[in-house]
Specification:
This protein is α+β, with helices and mostly antiparallel strands. It is 15% helix and 39% strand. It has one domain (5-185): Protein Transport Mog1p, Chain A (3-Layer(aba) Sandwich), CATH 3.40.1000. The protein is built from 4 helices and 9 strands; from the N terminus they run E-H-E-H-E-E-H-E-E-E-E-E-H. The relative contact order is 0.23.
Length: 186
């Protein structure tokens, strides 16, 4: 099937009211969106590849939105080589850690939702960041990735457990990923 990256914008309709939307301008890697921008280190080391897939950044299309239930990033980019993780990697990375600067995180990985002709993976990340004076902030990032037709598509939902607003529903990111794949395929 042919992928049309510009169609990713159609998935903005999945957002509830009250969200501000902008074009995606960050690095096309979930690990950067989780807050691990400066040379992240993972244990086991090979697991970082799940959260930083090799893509051609010049082909990146997507959007970001923020609102009362969290921050949503929906992205697609052309793969820069074979991307589908093998069963051995997924078995090694059921639970792994990542650290960079003042941030540490624990990631759990599992198979994603069933989407025709796509391999999907879900990564749930609990992030702790130490800020001035030793205060810790916590966030949660749920990322769903679809490997399809020479492209990598992902949806990341970042929520703040201390927010006075309820987070978006647990299935929200999966619904957006399914809609994105459908839109990309036309």
């Amino acid at each position: 099937m042919e992928i049309t990256p510009a169609r990713i914008d159609r998935t903005r309709a999945e957002l509830p009211d009250g969200y501000e939307v902008a074009g995606f301008t960050a690095a096309p890697a979930p690990i950067a969106l989780w807050g691990f921008g400066q040379a992240p280190v993972s244990e086991p080391p090979q697991c970082a590849g799940l959260a930083a897939p090799a893509v051609d950044p010049t082909t990146t299309r997507g959007w970001s939105a923020s609102g009362p239930g969290g921050i949503v990033h929906t992205v697609v980019a052309r793969a820069a080589g074979p991307q589908i993780p093998d069963s051995g990697l997924l078995a090694d990375c059921v639970r792994w850690t990542v650290a960079s600067g003042h941030a540490t995180g624990t990631v759990t990985t599992q198979p994603g939702p069933g989407i025709d002709a796509a391999t999907t993976v879900v990564m749930s990340t609990a992030v702790t960041t130490v800020v001035e004076g030793g205060t810790q902030t916590r966030s949660r990032a749920d990322t769903l990735v679809a490997y399809l037709d020479g492209h990598v598509c992902f949806v990341t939902l970042i929520t703040d457990p201390g927010s006075p607003h309820p987070a978006l529903a647990p299935g929200f990111a999966g619904d957006v990923l399914t809609a994105a794949v459908s839109a990309l395929r036309g």
